[in-house]
Amino acid sequence: MNVLVIGAAGHTGRLAVSSLAENIQHHVKAMVRKTDQMREMEKLGAKPVLADLEQDFSYAINDVNAIIFAAGSGSSTGHDKTIAVDRDGAIKAVNLAVQHGITRFIMLSSMGADRPDAASEFIRHYLEAKYAADAHLMKSGLNYTIVRPGCLTNDSPSGKVAAAVQIADRTGTISRADVAEVLVQCLLVHETEGRIFEIVSGDVPIGEALRQI
Questions:
Q1: N or C: which end of the chain has fewer CB within 10 A?
Q2: Whether the model pTM is above 0.90
């Protein structure tokens, strides 16, 4: 499978690129914004493409079968940047996938994106952007998976998660490495197709947890 990772230079995106590149079933294209990030992607085993979500990036979509959208402005950025990247950038990526006939789209969202109105004012604009992007993907006709992790950490991967449509413990955390592996495994686990689910650290191996959703 030829996979484009959008947001490949981010923490989670980089880990997803690395995992994909280790799998002989996948050929990886890594979308980055800066020229100095291209060399790193090559070292990871990916084909880098220089493009910006806030500009025209239609050329980056060529020759791929699936997209993993792992880009994000971060919850601490200003409203304008969050709208430009997390909402509008994601929506543009979905539209381009439709135009190019790409059927598989994996979206990295966030726990709480289903109810942004219930979030604190500090993070509400971020979750509102994620909500809009998720809703657009669901209506696009693409074969989608929307992954909503709990609070992200830089801990070492455990390879085990808890996955459900809604996780009871809203305070759960998960390592970026485990999130990246979930995104990658969604490409091959058919039970995740057309599904939205939340993930936190748990005690079930990732592949098994995804098949049980």
A1: N
A2: yes
